[in-house]
Design a protein that fits this description.
Blueprint lengths: L1 H16 L4 H4 L3 H11 L3 E12 L4 E8 L6 E6 L8 E5 L10 E6 L4 E4 L9 E8 L11 E11 L14
């Protein structure tokens, strides 16, 4: 009986593991190269793949990104892998706070854009809100998926002393 249950459990886990992988709706290859180019001259720190699922209702997905208050940062957003347009808003505080300030707003139709928070603003975190609209297809299906690639980098202070215009 234990052998039968073990075989059944293994079969179920293989079946569930073989379901649609996130990479099938989010092929990142070319997008990552574009983001890395847009990050120059900032030093790469992280890449976040934000999976976006369009549902039958509007909703907001929020992520927080920690930053050091004395460093300059660049955030590169790429939305080429989204099947529908969304809005992206960046705030200084989370949704739960009543008094929060919007720092930037972008439309995904731009496909790629950068955001550089003010280094002297005293921010320790920025909050990115993805405003995802409702979706219902003509055939009645209600869920489609896509993703937003977010790459972050900081300004390397050592590189500030170099003058790239002269070569010896």
């Amino acid at each position: 009986m234990r052998i039968l249950l073990s075989i059944l459990f293994l079969g179920a886990s293989f079946y569930l593991g073989a379901q649609e992988a996130p990479s099938s709706y989010c092929p990142k290859g070319d997008v990552v190269i574009k983001c890395r180019k847009a990050l120059v001259p900032f030093k790469y720190t992280n890449m976040i793949t934000n999976r976006i699922v369009f549902k039958r209702f509007n909703y907001v997905k929020e992520i927080s990104i920690p930053i050091y208050y004395d460093a300059r940062y660049r955030f590169v957003f790429n939305t080429e892998l989204l099947p529908k347009d969304i809005k992206i808003r960046i705030y200084d505080k989370p949704q739960s706070e009543k008094k929060r300030e919007q720092l930037a707003e972008f439309e995904s139709s731009q496909k790629q854009f950068n955001f550089e928070p003010d280094a002297e603003s005293g921010l320790y975190e920025v909050y990115v809100n993805f405003l995802i609209p409702a979706y219902i297809a003509e055939d009645g299906s209600s869920i489609i998926k896509g993703c937003v690639i977010l790459m972050t980098g900081y300004e390397d202070e050592v590189a500030d002393g170099f003058d790239n215009t002269e070569s010896e």
